[in-house]
Known about the structure:
- Helix content is 52%, strand content 15%.
- The chain contains 14 helices and twelve strands.
- A six-stranded parallel sheet has the order 2-1-3-4-5-11, with helices on both faces.
- The model has no long low-confidence stretch (mean pLDDT 88).
Amino acid sequence: MPKKMLWIVLSLFALSVILVACGGQAQQAVQEVAPTVEAAVQEVAPTVEAAVQEVAPTIETAVEEVQQEMEAPTEEAVEAPTEEVVAEEPAAVDEVIKIGFLAGVQDPFYFTMQRGAELAAADLGIELVTQIPEEWNATVQTPMLDALVARGDLDFLFLAPVDKEAMVAPLQAANDAGLPLLTVDTFIGDGDYAEGPVTFPLSYIGSDNVLGGYLGCQALAEAMGGAGKAYIQNVKPGISTTDQREEGCRQALDEYPDIELVGVDYNDDDPSKAQAQVQAILQREPDLGGIFGTNVFSAQGAGQVVKNSGLSGVVKVVAFDATELAIELLRDGTVDLVIAQKPADMGYLATMMATAYLNGVTSIPERIPTGYAIINQDNVDDPDIAKYIYTQ
Ligand code: T6T
């Protein structure tokens, strides 16, 4: 503002202060000088205006510059992102998040997992798209996976791959198509998504199945009195979970020199095939002492044949998976121990981790073990245990 302008304004201000201080006489004085003041104001008004006009563009530019500075990200923020952030761009979360769940097969274990996932979906306000194959088979699950990818509206997918090798390529294709994914219950590769041969799935949520197999067969060996002939009723080689349960069982039986493992059969997850195989081994080994059933249909087949053969309590049975039928066989003494996984927890956690990831959380643990409940005749009615029984 020009110096002259400043002086005029200041002197006018001083004058008005003096006038106020002087009271009545002042008023008369004011009226006398008013025209002069007015003339003075009229005189400087154009200059003031011109001066404002003059500096206006500068002020405006300055304001714009400040605004731009505030919007632009700082040097550090641009350079700082860690490696994971670069991995994949999470989906825009402006519309409802849509998460796909592809199970392994229709059985009480996955129905219970579905209920856990639905509970999480309700809690988190996301949409869940569930698909459950009728048969446990990679040739059935692969086209279902491809169809889920082809929909193009899913933001994330979690699934139980039915074979740890055969499902690597289909999942890689889904991931390459931009669909982030994690596996529940089973894994692909060796399950180590941090250092293993396959690392693109974000996480593996499921039981420690080697431990589960070990606990199951340690209990079987004890129930057999540490001696005799044992047998494993399994599903199909190549399934990460049941392969590991067999491995853990063998480790436990190896600790009992007086126990002989007389056979392992694979029932393709078909209960009637399981029954036929158990009838065959009982004929081949009439003094069989114990059977370990590695999952729902394996244990179901074994338990029903032992019961129907009147061998309840004679041939010891350990069942993996806490279906209502397994619990019934436990209550009537055919089954000695039931190992309950936590499929509802797996479904809930998978939905939660998927949602967290889509909301920008980058530190999703590559491994989330979900633990067990060991059920026997003494604790089967304890509500804290009974809650782990799978619902139909
Ligand atoms: O035992 C579960 C699951 O953990 C396994 O991967 C496959 O079989 C079940 O679904 C039970 O049928």
